[in-house]
Amino acid sequence: MWSPNTHSVTPLELKRAFSSKHRMYSDYNQQDAQEFLRFFLDSLHSALNTGNKGEHLRVDDNLSDNRKAEQTWEWYCRHECSIIRDLFVGQLKSTLRCTVCGNASVTFDPFWDLSVPLPSSSRCKLEACLDLFIREEVLDGDEMPTCSKCQTRRKCTKTFTIQRFPKYLVIHLKRFSETRWSKLSNIVEFPTGERELNMAPYAANTNSNMYYSLYAISNHMGSTAGGHYVAICKHPFTQKWHEFNDNLVSDALSEHHLVSSSAYILFYERA
């Protein structure tokens, strides 16, 4: 892929093999890159998974949150075991708190990427998107859950934090509406240098120091009616940025040209 003697690589055999298993990708219609990535990684994981099935998860409510997280992760790893999981999967902590009795219910779930909302401003920083992701949400009305202590439906608050960070962090900027009739063109300023993204403010444990370095971007140009994807990747040896536009490869892009309103998926590596 990074050979100086290779102008470009066209993964026709990979697409053909994948499409033969998943017919929805057999034509040349435009598909959502984030949905495809999730589907692709999950398919690779399923093919390589050597985990054991059948055992039910049992976690003692009297344990500390960190111990619950460890037990949940150990159980998950026994069932889902592959190099894909090792590289891309992290663990989210979800806290549901009753506004009447104050009881907190904590659950831990694996995640393959973070889908973060965009603020209403035309220009923002990635940290503002991450702040929205972990911002406290009020569950009221039809969304009220049942409080395990009150034994009835109560108004609750819900928050997310990151319990376990993956080696490769994938951040999806939610530019498209749920119906995909509209697309947001906000410019999101994201860290592009080495160890520039500090994820500590979003960690469940305050003593976590998690720094990430950007290594790739998936850009979407166009509208919901039609568009085009372009990849921008950092060479692992020369540290130079290159743009991959179908079979056209442009080299020597500077970090100053990476941020644009087209950025759709960001790929970070843990430092």
From TrEMBL:
Record's protein name: ubiquitinyl hydrolase 1
The alphabetized list of GO BP terms reads: protein deubiquitination
Identify the PANTHER family for this entry: UBIQUITIN CARBOXYL-TERMINAL HYDROLASE, UBIQUITIN CARBOXYL-TERMINAL HYDROLASE USP2
* Pfam families with a match to the protein in the record: UCH
Q: Which SUPFAM superfamilies match?
A: Cysteine proteinases
- USP domain segment(s): 1-271
Q: Which organism is it from?
A: Glossina palpalis gambiensis
Gene3D superfamilies to which the protein is assigned, alphabetical:
Cysteine proteinases
Its Enzyme Commission number(s) read 3.4.19.12
Under Gene Ontology molecular function, one entry of this record is: cysteine-type deubiquitinase activity
Q: Catalyses which reaction? A: Thiol-dependent hydrolysis of ester, thioester, amide, peptide and isopeptide bonds formed by the C-terminal Gly of ubiquitin (a 76-residue protein attached to proteins as an intracellular targeting signal)
Q: What class of enzyme is it?
A: hydrolase
